[in-house]
Design brief:
Helix content: 40-55%
Structural class: mainly alpha
Biased composition (Basic residues): 146-156, 300-310, 394-410
Organism: Microdochium bolleyi
Low-confidence stretches: 115-128, 154-158, 269-284, 314-325, 395-410
Order of helices and strands: HHHHHHHHHHHHHHHHEEH
Mean pLDDT: 76
Strand content: under 5%
Strand order of the largest sheet: 1-2
InterPro entries: Cup1-like_N
Domain LYR motif-containing protein Cup1-like N-terminal: 14-93
Number of strands: 2
Protein name: LYR motif-containing protein Cup1-like N-terminal domain-containing protein
Oligomer: single chain
């Protein structure tokens, strides 16, 4: 294990530490995490002193998180890959804004057709006070029929003011929500779509008296239903990025995509305190005197040796796994096969692409799927499968030997 890096004190020192740790991440999430570190540093550089202390504490936590991920913590590495591919976090909102937003009007005529101004005839009727009067030219109507007719007359979208739902393509949202409700996502993704995802189907259009609700109330309930769905929708990925992720899952990536970068050597710290201990170390060393133990709270002395801190630093002084020497607890040595199964496959199963059919105009949603592969039996295990029924329902003594990879006849 390399020696621990000195504890960063200033904001610039902490910024360099974060960028250094980002270089040890997998190639799938390295560009996005590095870009986010640079952007957040520039945004918070001119912050006030009170808020700067808060940002510094948060950055120290992020640094421990990155060190734990680069040391081999699979759950944290997977979360960083989710952030980079837009399954969670800021990029998820950016992909939704670019992929699920409503297309701009193609011509001036279509723009004029989307006018939200009320109808002049209806407005004049409202000013004259004749809106609540039934139409005398038609036969006498009941109160409920008259109210329903009035609602149908005022339920047009042009009679309502514009809202935030007008900026989204409802047909895309409907196709995506219907597909995601039928999709079984990985257990690491918490964005499960509700069964009652369609607000128009499950929305009550009558009040407690059995009368139809107003158009404004119906629109408000529709916005509320889609707002709940937005918390669970996973936006589609660009086609090129989706195909490159498919290549990583199927083993067609570059060799450096299936291993974590090796750590560069770090110079040893020479800053030593008066008592003979390393001042940058978070745990007490052998040079601690009894005055330090008396004057320092026990909670602070044992903080560096706690299990949480050891798993977050990921550099040294970590508990060893009882299953084998040299293996830190909670961390894994990730090779090509484990990276495909533990990192790339969950991200691939939670990714999708959306295309519009040229003839019907409907949107087709395609999710990433991993077909299970069953390996054949080894040569020493073949006698166990003798006599097993084949697909035709007949028993075969040599069927297992012919199908196995350890057949002596081959």
């Amino acid at each position: 294990m390399p020696p621990p890096i000195p504890h960063p004190e200033t904001a610039l020192h902490l910024y360099r530490h974060l960028l250094r740790e980002a270089t040890y991440l997998p190639a799938l999430c390295r560009p996005w995490i590095s870009d986010r570190i640079k952007t957040r540093y520039r945004d918070c550089r001119e912050a006030e002193s009170a808020r700067a202390d808060t940002y510094t504490r948060q950055a120290h936590g992020d640094l421990r998180y990155l060190r734990s991920a680069t040391a081999g913590h699979v759950d944290r590495l997977l979360h960083l890959c989710y952030l980079a591919t837009g399954r969670v976090g800021k990029r998820r909102r950016l992909l939704a804004k670019s992929g699920l937003a409503r297309d701009p009007p193609a011509s001036t005529a279509s723009l004029e057709g989307e006018s939200f101004l009320p109808d002049v005839s209806e407005d004049s009727k409202h000013k004259n006070g004749k809106e609540n009067e039934p139409d005398r030219s038609e036969p006498a109507l009941t109160q409920r029929e008259h109210t329903r007719k009035k609602r149908d007359r005022h339920s047009r979208k042009t009679d309502l003011p514009p809202d935030w739902l007008d900026n989204w393509a409802v047909d895309k949202l409907t196709a995506l929500a219907r597909s995601q409700a039928d999709k079984k996502l990985p257990h690491t993704i918490t964005h499960d779509m509700r069964r009652t995802w369609d607000p128009e189907k499950n929305m009550s259009r009558e009040n407690s008296w059995g009368l139809p609700i107003q158009a404004r109330t119906e629109r408000s309930r529709l916005r509320l239903g889609w707002a709940r769905n937005f918390k669970a929708l996973l936006p589609p990925l660009p086609r090129s990025e989706w195909e490159s992720l498919e290549g990583l899952v199927n083993g067609r990536g570059r060799p450096e995509d299936y291993r974590l970068p090796r750590r560069r050597p770090v110079a040893k710290s020479t800053v030593v305190g008066d008592s003979g201990k390393d001042m940058h170390s978070s745990s007490p060393g052998p040079g601690i005197t009894w005055q330090d133990i008396i004057n320092t709270p026990v909670r602070r002395l044992q903080h560096g040796s706690s299990r949480k801190m050891k798993s977050l630093t990921g550099l040294d002084e970590m508990d060893q796994d009882p299953r084998g020497p040299g293996r830190p607890e909670g961390l894994r040595t990730l090779g090509g096969r484990k990276m495909r199964r533990m990192l790339y496959q969950p991200v691939w199963m939670a990714s999708l692409t959306m295309e519009k059919h040229a003839v019907s105009g409907n949107f087709k949603v395609k999710w990433g799927q991993v077909s299970p592969t069953i390996s054949s039996a080894a040569g020493k295990e073949l006698p166990f499968f003798d006599g097993v029924e084949t697909s035709g329902g007949r028993k075969s003594k040599s069927g297992a030997k012919q199908r196995g990879r350890g057949s002596r006849n081959s």
